[in-house]
Write a structure and sequence with these properties.
about 30% strand; 6-stranded mixed sheet; D-Amino Acid Oxidase, Chain A, domain 2; 9-stranded mixed sheet
Length: about 300
């Protein structure tokens, strides 16, 4: 079968299929380290995905998979304490049943000025290591990867089942007008000693997060709908540093390393379904918004179930 796309959704799906005995060929316009997934801060958090029973199921399965990968040194996955911070009380998050160690933030447990929210154990995925790890697992299971730009399903062999993990590329491939870019700009800074993931998306000023990855911290971010500009914007970088500095003042002063920009595949809901397109059997798996990593293993298992369904 053919998997289209080599971001985290495509590679996770390809690995899942290959390791369960399917012959898999991945075709992708870009390979790591040149995918949108490489740009992601990549910690477990269901950001900009629609709450639903299936989203919860995907998140639970993925969390469990990443927790297991923490014991695999080559994977680049570690478990860190995460603080989902707020200035006012928050209700229990819809994804609460997926995580370990969930506790309310009380009093001085959070950053100054953030006396509410939740803390939990969050897998942090270093994409510099993790995506090559997935490629290695795919190769070990007999999967193949090839650079190719596919603009129409008709150019592919009809005898092959197609798994569509093209992300934003599915907008043209499927003429899916619900799919649109969500521009995300991130800032990498030298790590001033941060050990925990810090997050604030509750004060109305956008999202702020800080994800430590060894010698540097990934700061985010922006989420601008219908914006496909890949050029970094200095004003955005300054805003990101200031908002993250509210969570930890050291972050606002940390020396900057680089600005990065990626385009999330935004959609009102993830498209994960089987469809007959002419003579091709296609299973779609795209539109994950800001939760591609967070839902990746759960979605891959559902692709497998659809593939094996009568």
């Amino acid at each position: 079968m053919i998997v289209l796309g080599a971001g985290v959704s495509g590679l996770t799906t390809a690995v899942t299929l290959a390791e369960t005995g399917h012959a898999v060929q991945v075709l992708a316009a870009s390979l790591p380290p040149d995918t949108t997934s490489n740009v992601a801060a990549a910690f477990w958090y269901p950001y900009r995905t629609r709450p639903s029973d299936r989203s919860t199921r995907w998140a639970v399965r993925s969390y469990a998979a990443f927790a297991e990968l923490c014991d695999e040194p080559a994977a680049g996955v570690s478990m860190r304490r995460a603080f989902d911070c707020a200035r006012t009380p928050l209700g229990r998050p819809w994804w609460a049943d997926a995580v370990q160690g969930l506790e309310r933030i009380r009093g001085t447990q959070g950053p100054d000025g953030f006396g509410h929210g939740w803390r939990f154990d969050a897998p942090v995925i270093d994409t510099r290591t993790y995506l090559p790890y997935l490629l290695d697992r795919l190769s070990a299971a007999g999967g193949r990867v090839e650079l190719a730009t596919i603009e129409d399903f008709t150019v592919l062999p009809t005898r092959e089942t197609i798994i569509n993990c093209c992300g934003l590329g599915a907008r043209l491939l499927c003429d899916d007008r619900a799919l649109h870019p969500i521009r995300g700009q991130l800032l990498h800074v030298e790590n001033p000693g941060l050990e925990h993931v810090l997050l604030d998306e509750h004060d109305g000023g956008g999202i702020a997060y800080a994800v430590p990855r060894g010698d540097h911290v990934v700061l985010g971010g922006t989420a601008t709908e219908h914006d496909d500009d890949l050029e970094p914007r200095p004003d955005d970088a300054d805003t990101i540093a200031a908002r993250c500095g509210a969570l930890d003042p050291r972050l606002a002063r940390a020396p900057r390393i680089r600005d990065v920009v990626g385009l999330r595949p935004g959609r009102h809901d993830v498209r994960l379904q089987r469809e007959q397109v002419g003579e091709h059997t296609v299973i779609h798996n795209y539109g994950h918004g800001g939760a591609g990593v967070t839902l990746s293993w759960g979605c891959a298992r559902d692709v497998l179930a659809l593939l094996d369904a009568p």
